[in-house]
Backbone:
């Protein structure tokens, strides 16, 4: 099952992902790199310094907490929705699935513009509203991933455990969660990414309270001569998802053993 | 039942809000200062200008803290994001919104004013307003929208053409000369595609030029003038197109893209409405060292940018204190210093004390950026914002689609 792709294919894949990152990393550690130089004329950390001056560290913390909160809510909700859909506990599953997946089809700008008056009028604290809306945007992804996982899930293990006298809690803890762990981690990663990269909802619904990494990147990228700041922020923004992907890969490998 | 009832409630509550701009409460300045104590002001501003960010964080914010006001900068990609947020808050009837002060001008101010997004009738009470010239047309009209004490001036800007003196040793001095030069040097000139802000200014400048001068174009938009004046403009730009970068088959999408082409030596001219950033762009090597400003004999359009207080802000007292502080000679001088931000002051130097006047006059000059007097010689005010969309749309249909 777990066949390793041939060496060449793997190398091409790695290149495909790494190549676009090389100029960004170079930009992040150069003070001056003007056309037509193929390498920076002056190395340095001005971009990193500017990013820190602009509150990059706080923005990074805020982004991380926001994305973790969204992942923590959207993953179990997606799992529950997926289980209900797979087990046939839902009437008109096609309609329900359609509603669940609708946020993917709607542009976030339309969602944000349509809902912010409602959110403002309901007096929900802006941070809570941002987490709620991003969770809605993330649920289609977590549901989809978990639906596939439940589809391939062998209920036999659970039945076996129950005949041996395991309680519901024990089945959940010792059988279901460990067996679904790789899928749950993948779903959490997707939910994390949805919140991690959002600009529109975070700014318009959050009312500027949550200055996250994408907001800093977008505002700097709108100006001239900010390439090194934008690059420094972007490199920082790639690190957490990358770490999560690596952790996920390790988890997969361990559970495959 | 409950759901239907609350949905109905929400729908009726969604009726369009009063578009009349609210007027600030009449209060003495000392009352306002008192109220401002301990308040936090969220200033929403375009975040792409690093020097502007640094000025607000390192100079304006500490000075506001001394007045008892905490200033918090919210960086946005475009001022439109702030207006969008304010309009939603207004629609929802929020009176303690998340936006307390906005760096704004032009169309964003105009649309906001139409929708009653700004608090009005407060700038005349700012003590430092006395240091500005009450007759200054740039401070009375913002792209043709009367300011009506709905925003307080912050600094002036001038539309500026910029060239590489190494590539153009003998630069043109008139707008016609620039177009002639572009034809003589195919591929070395272009302009950002409207509705980009800078591309749009270039278009208005070209309209004024093609119409025979600023007096020939009525500042207020009317369809007859548009129909009469624009054919000549679009003919001219169409005729120019084959001499542009990539034969005019494509245009830079934004002024940053044009700047990138200029920085990379693919074109020899760029243009900006914010010449204050030029010395830094040269100093940090983004722009070539031979970058110079091209002043035109007939002048270019100038404008002022402003600080506006949203009508949804619950902290208008503290916002007024910050706006007044931003107008003080100390802040205006600091901001005008090229190393800090280099923005031209809105103060009338004749109204200042001899010492502060001398300080303004002693500001170091730059080889890149001439003084405001030189830059704004023969400057003309902006056309009304109502001109902007028809012109941009006309350009899209006549010039862009004409390829």
Residues:
């Amino acid at each position: 099952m777990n066949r390793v792709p041939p060496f060449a294919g793997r190398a091409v894949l790695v290149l495909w992902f790494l190549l676009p990152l090389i100029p960004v990393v170079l930009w992040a550690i150069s003070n001056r790199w003007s056309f037509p130089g193929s390498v920076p004329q002056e190395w340095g950390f001005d971009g990193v310094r500017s990013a820190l001056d602009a509150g990059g560290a706080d923005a990074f913390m805020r982004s991380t907490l926001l994305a973790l909160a969204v992942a923590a809510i959207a993953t179990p909700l997606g799992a529950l929705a997926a289980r209900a859909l797979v087990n046939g506990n839902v009437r008109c599953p096609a309609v329900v699935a359609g509603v669940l997946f609708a946020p993917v089809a709607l542009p976030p700008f339309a969602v944000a513009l349509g809902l912010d008056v409602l959110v403002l009028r309901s007096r929900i604290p802006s941070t809570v509203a941002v987490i709620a809306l991003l969770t809605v945007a993330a649920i289609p992804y977590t549901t989809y991933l978990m639906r596939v996982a439940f589809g391939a899930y062998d209920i036999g293990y659970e039945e076996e455990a129950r005949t041996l006298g395991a309680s519901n809690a024990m089945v959940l803890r010792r059988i279901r969660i460990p067996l679904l762990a790789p899928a749950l981690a993948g779903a959490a990663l997707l939910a994390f990414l949805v919140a991690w990269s959002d600009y529109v909802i975070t700014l318009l619904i959050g009312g500027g309270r949550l200055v996250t990494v994408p907001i800093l990147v977008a505002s700097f990228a709108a100006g001239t001569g900010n390439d090194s700041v934008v690059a420094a922020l972007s490199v920082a923004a790639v690190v957490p998802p990358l770490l999560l992907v690596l952790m996920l890969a390790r988890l997969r490998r361990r559970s495959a053993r | 039942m409950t759901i239907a009832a609350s949905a109905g409630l929400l729908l009726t509550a969604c009726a369009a809000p009063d578009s009349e701009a609210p007027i600030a409460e009449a209060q003495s300045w000392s009352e306002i200062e008192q109220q401002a104590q301990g308040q936090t002001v969220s200033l929403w501003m375009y975040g792409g200008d690093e020097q502007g960010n640094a000025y607000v964080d390192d100079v304006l914010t500490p000075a506001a803290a001394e007045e008892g006001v905490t200033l918090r900068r919210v960086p946005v990609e475009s001022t439109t994001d702030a207006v969008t947020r304010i309009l939603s808050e207004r629609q929802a009837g929020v009176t303690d919104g998340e936006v307390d002060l906005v760096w704004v001008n032009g169309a964003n101010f105009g649309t906001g004013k139409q929708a009653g997004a700004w608090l009005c009738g407060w700038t005349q009470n700012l003590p430092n307003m006395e240091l500005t010239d009450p007759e200054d047309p740039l401070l009375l009209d913002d792209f043709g929208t009367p300011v009506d004490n709905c925003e307080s001036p912050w600094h002036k800007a001038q539309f500026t053409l910029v060239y590489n003196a190494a590539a153009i040793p003998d630069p043109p001095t008139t707008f016609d000369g620039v177009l002639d030069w572009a034809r003589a040097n195919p591929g070395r000139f272009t302009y950002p595609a409207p509705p980009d802000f800078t591309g749009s200014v270039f278009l208005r400048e070209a309209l004024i030029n093609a119409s025979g001068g600023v007096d020939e174009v009525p500042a207020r938009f009317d369809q007859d003038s548009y129909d009469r004046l624009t054919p000549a403009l679009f003919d001219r730009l169409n005729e120019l197109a084959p001499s542009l970068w990539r034969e005019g088959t494509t245009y830079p999408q934004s002024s940053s893209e044009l700047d990138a082409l200029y920085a990379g030596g693919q074109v020899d001219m760029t243009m900006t409405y914010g010449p204050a950033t030029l010395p830094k762009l040269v100093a940090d090597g983004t722009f070539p060292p031979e970058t110079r400003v091209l002043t035109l004999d007939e002048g270019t359009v100038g404008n002022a940018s402003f600080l506006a207080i949203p009508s949804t802000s619950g902290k208008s007292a503290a916002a007024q204190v910050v706006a007044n502080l931003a107008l003080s000679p100390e802040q205006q001088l600091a901001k005008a210093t090229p190393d800090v931000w280099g923005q031209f002051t809105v103060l009338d130097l004749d109204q200042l004390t001899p010492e502060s006047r001398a300080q303004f006059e002693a500001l170091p000059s730059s080889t890149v950026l001439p003084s405001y007097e030189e830059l704004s010689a023969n400057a003309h005010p902006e056309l009304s914002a109502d001109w902007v969309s028809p012109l941009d749309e006309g350009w899209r249909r006549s010039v862009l689609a004409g390829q």
In short: The mean pLDDT of chain A is 87. Chain A is about 75% helix and 0% strand.
